[in-house]
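pasting for the record
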Amino acid sequence: MKYYLAYGSNLDLNHMKLMCSDSKFLGITKIDGFKLAFRGEDNRSYLTAINEKDSFVYAGIFEITDKCEFSLDHYEDYPNLYYKEVINFQINDNIYA
């Protein structure tokens, strides 16, 4: 089982269902140690989460399949624009990784 932490356009549930019909929205979580920032140049700017000690980001949590991950990788131009990082997060007092 894989979890995907969404922010930006991927928080739109209809958008996620179009890209990842097998995804399941689980809720939201607060991720400490990150902040949102715009990156890029010219017509290719994007929103990303970067490490920032005293900051936090709220993210939507989705359960995804390998097919969903492939679709997200294509949409997000992974690994050119984004990287993947394994982090711990919590929903309703349950810790996930």
